[in-house]
Amino acid sequence: MKLTAIGTAGSFPGPNSAASCYLIETDEESPTRIVLDLGSGALSPLQRAVNTDGLTSVVLSHLHPDHCMDMTGLYVKHCYDPKFFNGNISDTGSIRTRTSVLAPAGAQERLTRAYYTDPGKSPVADSGHDADLSHAFDFADLDHGTSHQVGSLQIESFLVDHPVEAYALRITDANGAVITYSGDSDECDNLVEAARGADLFLCEAAFQEDRDSARGIHLTGKRAGRVAQAADAKSLVLTHIPSWTDCSIVCGEAAREYRGPIELAKPGNSWTV
Fold first, then answer.
1. How far apart are the C-alpha atoms of 96 and 85, rounded to whole Å?
2. Which residue, among 41, 46, 34, 29, has the nearest Cα to 2 in the 3D structure?
3. CB-based burial, 49-81: b 16+ in 10 Å, e otherwise
4. DSSP 8-state assignment for residue 133
5. If 0-12 CB within 10 Å is exposed, 13-18 middle and 19+ buried, where does residue 237 land?
6. What is the pLDDT of residues 81-128, one digit of tens each?
7. CA separation (Å) from 154 to 1, 40, 198, 204, 212?
């Protein structure tokens, strides 16, 4: 598997990066291509990395805007690109093969609310079409302990500690290689299990020790390192660090807890496992 960082900024798009988005591709004659999260601003750099018409699936770890909001733009692209749109604005039923979306329950309703705009006083309101994301996407629910086969990849979901329903994702390829993505989480047993023995652990570290005291929201570098060490992960890649945090401090915190190799995710960086 090849993992490419598309957007790595924490909590909102930063000056040098879109919000959370990562691309996983397999090295096969018919590759599996999965997007992990599609946060604010991420659709633009994603299109430079891959033809989004050929995505196998989008997997949303949770439904905060910095992890899912550019799904509304992907809906527009999939519906209104002239090569899919059939010219009859009242009929969007034959546009393209729908893209699989794995996400927490309620994702379709959440994203439909984000996309829909009341026509208000528009004099041509009747010419609009309904905001039905199922025209472009085929939604299925994530849940703790469930496993989904997407192309040649197996995706397991683990409920983690965050103020909304959120999942860490364990992705295993046909050869047994494993990438674990923390999504947003504080330190918890399920996150350790998700990362157990992973070849690469892509882990958020949005908080900083001695500055951010809230628990149950995000990891610090120290706690990310502690989880990686407890899970015996083979490598640790830190991400989701907001612009007000010094990355070197977070990496230093992690290095005091984790004895394996540590890298910092930056847009465009890629890793192969």
1. 8
2. 34
3. bbebeebbbbbbbbbbebbbbbbbbbbeebbee
4. G
5. buried
6. 877 665 444 444 444 678 999 999 999 999 999 999 888 999 998 877
7. 12, 26, 14, 22, 35
Distance (Å, rounded) from C-alpha 181 to C-alpha 191? 9
Domains and CATH numbers, the chain: 2-272 (3.60.15.10)
Distance CA 38, CA 234 (A): 26
Q: How many Å separate Cα 236 from the centre of its chain?
A: 17
**DSSP code, position 118:** -
Dihedral sign, CA of 197, 187, 202, 136? positive
Q: What pLDDT score does 93 carry?
A: 46
Residues of the chain with pLDDT under 70: 84-96
pLDDT at 130: 75
